[in-house]
Amino acid sequence: MEITNDNNPDFFRTQCIVHNLKITPQRILIYNELTGAKNHPTVDNIYRSLHEKYPNISFDTVNRTLLTFYDIGLVDIIESPGSQRRFDPNKENHHHLHCIKCGKIIDFTSSELDALSIPLEVGKHFKVLQKRVVINGICEDCQKKTAGL
């Protein structure tokens, strides 16, 4: 198992050009903030971080921009139970460890999980575009906190 967090720096520019999307200062700021985050941030996380440095940026701009990024394939949206949607700029094939205590999501790669085959019945009724395994559990930090009680 290998923990990942790689992003191709040219991916942003290429996807914008391919989809006729202007490369604006706001979009660059939002994309850089997202790709610099290690925690699969929410819209609110990105907005708060950017708003501290750039008070004129609006929540709506951040939200619409992230949804546009999703629409053109720059980022993925991760839905996690009981929380806001989170954004994942890592477009490499990977899986997620999701801590049910603190909500942390950790990227990892696994050739064994990549090799899992899709059941034939699923393929008959559903066109699979991607497969990603999410493993729910308790992260190392939360385990240490619990052990220290």
In short:
This protein has 149 residues and is of the alpha+beta class. Helix content is 42%, strand content 15%.
Helix fraction, binned, reads 40-55%
Class by SSE composition = alpha+beta
Give me the side-by-side strand order of the main sheet.
1-5-4-6
Order of helices and strands: EHHHHEEEEHHEH
CATH topology of the largest domain: Arc Repressor Mutant, subunit A
Which architecture of the largest domain per CATH?
A: Orthogonal Bundle
Point out poorly predicted stretches: 1-6
Q: What's the CATH superfamily of the largest domain, by name?
A: Winged helix-like DNA-binding domain superfamily/Winged helix DNA-binding domain
Kindly give the count of domains. 2
Shape: flat
Description:
This protein has 149 residues and is of the alpha+beta class. The protein has helices spanning 11-18, 25-36, 43-53, 59-71, 111-114, 120-125, 140-147; strands at residues 2-3, 76-78, 86-88, 95-99, 105-109, 134-137. It has a four-stranded mixed sheet. Strands 2-3 form a two-stranded antiparallel sheet. Residues 1-6 have low confidence and may be disordered.
Task: Give the helix/strand layout.
Layout lengths: L1 E2 L7 H8 L6 H12 L6 H11 L5 H13 L4 E3 L7 E3 L6 E5 L5 E5 L1 H4 L5 H6 L8 E4 L2 H8 L2
Parallel strand pairs: 4-6
Antiparallel strand pairs: 1-5, 2-3, 4-5
Helix pairs in contact: 2-3, 2-4, 3-4
What descriptive keywords fit this protein?
four-stranded mixed beta sheet, disordered N terminus, Arc Repressor Mutant, subunit A, two-stranded antiparallel sheet, 7 helices, alpha+beta, 6 strands, flat, single chain, Dna Ligase, domain 1, 149 residues
